Amino acid sequence: MQSAAKVAQLPRPNVPEIAIAGRSNAGKSTALNVICERRRMAFASKTPGRTRLINLFSLNWQNRELGRLVDLPGYGYAAVDAGTLRAWQHELSRYLAARQNLSGLILVTDIRHALGPLDRQMLAWFGQRQRPVHLLLTKADKLNRADQQRALAKAEAAMAAAAPGWGQPVTVSLFSGLKRMGRDEILDRISLWLGLEASDPEEEQKKAGSNAAGDNAFVKAPAQGGEAGDMTPVV
């Protein structure tokens, strides 16, 4: 929809926005591409810090904008100068602290190094806004099933201990872009924050006559556009 270097350049806050944040090497762009079923909507690079603007992606259904996904610049390591890092931090803080239509935060963190100091700092600070948070444990395919479950339990315990003062529950799920693991769970969370009702799998199968049981209205929205850089709507 739009890229902006500053919060002041963003469009009017007239629909709900869901922010996606995380360390520069946590797999944020890959997660966004898999969630939206786009190969290169967000540019996934081996070089951390490629997201250098606030990127907004419009979520449309039947010619109506339901909401937006907002890809924020990654924090932590990035191959840029100190002045640019400070500018990113300033605009990131302004967006998360004051954007009126911000409905929730998806925090992307590598399951092998989950909840580092910067992740915890982000959660503690954003919790003051009393908005829901979902912790997405990415790169789950790097661990075996037993280690995945241990990491999930550890993250859930950490969130349960830290979240009582936030006024909103913190949810956690596993995710793997390579294996396409966890896409349904995060889509359900996005639908909930946008005020969409999750559909009954059997009823949807009967109505649509498809094999995509469990998909909701957001998932079934027809694609309009394609690769990153297209001037047409993406979703």
Summary?
The chain has 235 residues and is an alpha/beta fold. The chain has helices at 28-36, 82-98, 117-126, 145-162, 183-193, 201-208, 217-220; strands spanning 2-4, 17-22, 54-61, 64-71, 102-110, 133-138, 170-174.
Structure description:
By secondary structure, this protein is an alpha/beta fold. The protein has seven helices and seven strands, in the order E-E-H-E-E-H-E-H-E-H-E-H-H-H. It has helices at 28-36, 82-98, 117-126, 145-162, 183-193, 201-208, 217-220; strands spanning 2-4, 17-22, 54-61, 64-71, 102-110, 133-138, 170-174. The protein has a seven-stranded mixed sheet, sandwiched between helices. Mean pLDDT is 78; it is low at 44-50 and 199-235.
Any chance you could write out the topology, listing elements then pairs?
Blueprint: E1 2-4, E2 17-22, H1 28-36, E3 54-61, E4 64-71, H2 82-98, E5 102-110, H3 117-126, E6 133-138, H4 145-162, E7 170-174, H5 183-193, H6 201-208, H7 217-220
Parallel strand pairs: 2-4, 2-5, 5-6, 6-7
Antiparallel strand pairs: 1-3, 3-4
Estimate what percentage of residues fall within beta strands.
15-25%
Which structural class matches the secondary elements?
A: alpha/beta
Count structural domains: 1
CATH H-level superfamily: P-loop containing nucleotide triphosphate hydrolases
Q: Give the strand tally.
A: 7
For the record, the CATH architecture stands as 3-Layer(aba) Sandwich
**Overall pLDDT, averaged?**
78
CATH class identity:
Alpha Beta
Major sheet: 7 strands, mixed
